[in-house]
Amino acid sequence: MAKKTSKETNSKDQNTVEAEVTAVPVENNTPKVKLTNGKTDDSKEKSISVEQKLISLFSLQQIDSQIDKIRIIRGELPLEVQDLEDEVAGLETRIDNFIDEIQSLEKSINDKLNSIKDCKLLIKKYEEQQANVRNNREYDSLTKEMEFQNLEIQLCEKKIKEFKAQLDIKKIDVDKAQSNHNEKKNDLDIKKAELDDIVAETEKEETELIEKSHEHQKLIEDRLLIAYKRIRKNASNGLAVVGIERDACGGCYNKIPPQRQLDIKMHKKIIVCEYCGRVLVDNLIAETVKI
What we know:
CATH class of the largest domain: Mainly Alpha
Number of domains: 2
Number of strands: 5
Number of helices: 7
Distance between the termini: 49 Å
Largest sheet: 3 strands, mixed
CATH topology of the largest domain: Helix Hairpins
Strand content: under 5%
Oligomer: single chain
Order of helices and strands: HEEHHHHEEHEH
């Protein structure tokens, strides 16, 4: 008998996942999963054949693909609705900030007007006191106080003009933001109504398919399910399990060697495409699955 070469004994395809499962026969001929500690799991009776694992994976893929098609019908609407909701919320916050600034400016104007009133009252008081002064020094002191109050009035009037100019700008900004908000809100209402109509048409079917997907996921061991989800996430078309089409991978369309096709048909192990990493099934498995 010829000895195996080290290449034959040590080579291992990194993209091939072999399903090595030990079955424990029972009276009703239904195999059970044998746990690593030697005990059998009586609560979850599952077929451990690679063929049935492939059927379960392909069935799950078909269901998830139908869910993907339903969601494709919605297109970019959910994202558009989300973007519009964010824009509307942002505009509402901006308008609120403008309103707060306007109220602050109006308060500042009122404060300056009150300051002007106080200054005028002081000037009137100083004028009355000047009529009763006893010497020039008191007269000059009151005159300086009056000049100071007049300067305060001029400063307040200048500030009021500045505040009013800012107020006019803020009011224009509020009007623009409010107009933009109304347009976006109208667009949002239209998009939401359109999305609600599409969801209403497909919601029942999608819910049923999601329930089916969850049921099929329970039939697949965790290791394979995690790998399936990872491949689906990385695949642009969401296909993690594909059939063989014209001697090529149904996902990336790269040619599959005859020997590898034979291995796939044997259903002895789970084989993935060496180019794209998708799980490969033969036509027999694809024809068996009816969703």
